Amino acid sequence: MIPALLISLLAATPEPRTTGGAAAPAALPAGTNALYGFVGAPEVAVGYRQGFGVLELDGRASFNLFKVSFIGDVALKFPVYQRQGLRLAPLLSLGVEFNTGATYFDLTNFDFIGLRPRVGFLASYAFTETISGVAQLDLPVSVALTTRGFVVTPTVGVGAEFHLGGGFSLLLAGLVGFEATQEARNPTFYRAAWGARLGVGYRLF
User: Fold this and answer.
1) Residues sharing a CB contact under 8 Å with residue 12, sequence separation 6 or more, in sequence order
2) What pTM was computed for the model?
């Protein structure tokens, strides 16, 4: 009777709460969710994360300040490794991009409506109960549907997320990489890419 009761209690014990919401942990545990947003360059964004255990659903709406483009996408994150404070999760995403073609800051930009598939790999490590490190390898590809062209921007980013109290956390992150842009029959243009983010996450559960 007692062993059976102990087994049932252990089975009902929820997974320990993990700090973060904006970027950490790499994939949310089952039954947890969070709202997040960040400002910076070149993008500002808001999103929602929902953990299901075998995967996490992440929906995001973002705006690129330099290109004056709007992006909405839905990503699936798959927790493949968890040991102590370390979490690893590959990412698959599909979105839609509406690019105005503004050339105020980007002379190679062009107007289009297109699909934006994205693959990536996320890692997070909880150094303490209030500080987590995050890293991400990201490969978005904007494929124009209204004209011939594409934009590929592979980047790698690192940052840290700090628990502020309650369900709130603060994210500081930066990224570097390169961008390849090709429109119609023009030659492909390559240049450096970078980004900086100041974000806030709020864990609902």
Assistant:
1) none
2) 0.88
